[in-house]
Every structure is written in C-alpha cells, then in structure tokens.
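User: Hey, quick favor. My workstation is busy. Could you predict this chain's structure for me?
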Amino acid sequence: MPMQIAQEIADFFAGKRDCEGTQEHPTGLFPGLSFDEYAAIKAINWSTLRWCGHTMRHFKYHWDHADSEDTDATGLGRLFHLCLLEPEAARERLIVTPRTYFTLESAQDGVTVKDAGDGTFIVASGRGKARVEYSCRIIEEEGKAYIAGDAPDGWARIIEKPWNGNANACRRWLTDICDVGREVVSADDLANACAMAAAVREIPDATEMLDGADVEVTVVASDPQTGLLCKARIDVLKGHQLGDAKSSSRGLAWESAARTMKYYAYAGQAAFYRDLYDLATGEKPEVPMFRFLFAESDPPHCAAVYDLFDVQGAVSQEWMDWGRSLYHSYLQQVAYCLREGGWPGYNQPSASVPPESMELALPDWLKLEQGSLE
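Assistant: No problem, here it is.
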C-alpha cells in the first residue's frame, strides 16, 4: 500500500478528518460486547459503507453522524431481533406502556384538585384565610388504586384515563422505569415483534441454526486490499456459519426476496460479513453459507429463510460474487476519497470539480415495462 494512502487511513481512524474520537481495537472475534461497546470501535461497518451506493458524501455524513434514534421501522426491527435472538433478555428488559393511568379529580363543588408534579395531589377548599389544603397520593396495589393522605373522605375521587405521555403521572412512571434500566415499548409493537419471532421459529432450518448459537458477535478485521479497519455485528453464529435476522415490509416470495436483496444490497452485507469473519478467525467451513431469517413486519407476519452459498456451482453464489464486488468497490472508493481529500456528491466525478448536469436517459427496466404495455 502506498505510504501516503496508509497515512490517510491512519489519520481517518485517528479522527483527524473531522471524525469524532477513536477507540483502538484489536482484530478478531469478540463475543459478549454490548452494542455501545461495538459502536465505540472506530471501524467501518456495513450500515455506514452501504451509503457509498448513494454518494461518497453520504458515506462521510453517516460516518460522522452515527444514527442515535429509532425510526418506527428500525424500532420494530430491533424489537424483532431481541425477541428472536435474546428472548430471555427481552423478558427482563422490556416493559409495555400501560394503556391507562390513575389520577384524581374533585368530587364536590368548591373543592379543587391539583397535581403537584411530585406524585402528590393538593386537595383544597375555600379562599383566603378560610382556605384549607390537604396532601394526598394514589396508591396502586394489585391493579387497584386508593387514596392515601389526610384529605376528607368524599372530597376527591380516583379516575382512570387513557395513557397520555404529557401527564405528570405518565412522565413519572417513565422516569422511574428508565432509571432501573428497563425499556418501554408499546403493546402493539411487542405483539408484532413476538409474532415475527414465532413465525421464524416455525421454520425448522431457522430453529436448527438458532438453537445453541452465539448471537450478536462482534468481528473486527482489516481489509487486505485497502487496509481499512472494518467491523460487523453478526446476528447468528453457529459452526462457522453466519446468519442475519431481517424484518421486511415487502413480500417474501423468492422473486420479491430477490428484489429486496438487490434493493437493500443485502448480498453486499453477506459477503462483507463472511469475509471479515474468515479474515479474523482463519476459520472457513467446507461449504460457507450466509443465512437470512426474514419475517414480514405486517400481519400475518409470514417468515422465510434464504441461503447464500459461497461455493462454486451453487445457484446462489452469483449473489455472493455480486456482493463481494460491491463492497470491494465501496472500500476502494473510500480509500480513493481519503487519498484525494474530498467526498463528492451526485454527478460529481471527484470532489475537486463541481457537479455536472446530466441528460436523464430512459433506463432499460422502464423500456421493458413500456414494451410490455404496447
């Protein structure tokens, strides 16, 4: 590798190109790392590398700004992962948002009730010197609620309201739950995630791979062509075979799955993970495979398993060849941009020249569609 490129790569991972801090990490296989520990490793992962398929400016942005919040789609996908891969952790960590909460209201004319914001209520009557105030709170036990405090009987009553994240009682509950390390999810999202996980486990080949497997395993290795440090978080690892759980809003019949594989470049991920694992461990099974465990995110949450075999003669090997060529080209582009010192956008051959206008041609796939309509 030319010395200049090697130095550019070193500077990139040392945070000298407007990247945030770095954490040095050895190469190899690292089971048991938390997601935060994995995220702290300053290395290129597929979630960031795939943005090269848009522009190199997209890659650089996502390198500098790691996603920190769930969208609805990724939130459900993450729940599905947890329920499928770590069901015991899901039971310990997750708690469902209640559908209702208890609060107090006045039960008599001339009596006011105010939520003090600290778990207590001020029940008052009268004005001026004649005003009297009492402090009370709601005690919940075994699904029932009653008023505790010194307010006279009949001045206030408990009512049950639909859950409202802006209500003081709901905010207090959420704070208490988060303080003890629990994660709050909606009943609908949890039900969907559990149904998706159950659908996958109905498939014998999926259950066979999941039972006794290591899950969420971190692998770190240097790409031999560019020297770039890369990492992956393997969903399922068993007998040197790799698997990944995917939620999908599209159909999972094989034609639809093939379109999804192309659209989301999942074959690039499969080849990237497969090669990183082989590099980091030196272990390669006789018939290397990458298994996708798909589940539909919408009811009835049907599931499907699709395998990509990385062996000559397999019908799926063309996917692995395509994916390997894809991720190699992406890493080469990253190395090139490091050498040139810029990150071009659309219709821009390099960062040193401005974007160009481009005549928009009719793509071949649309010509085929147009011909079928004539």
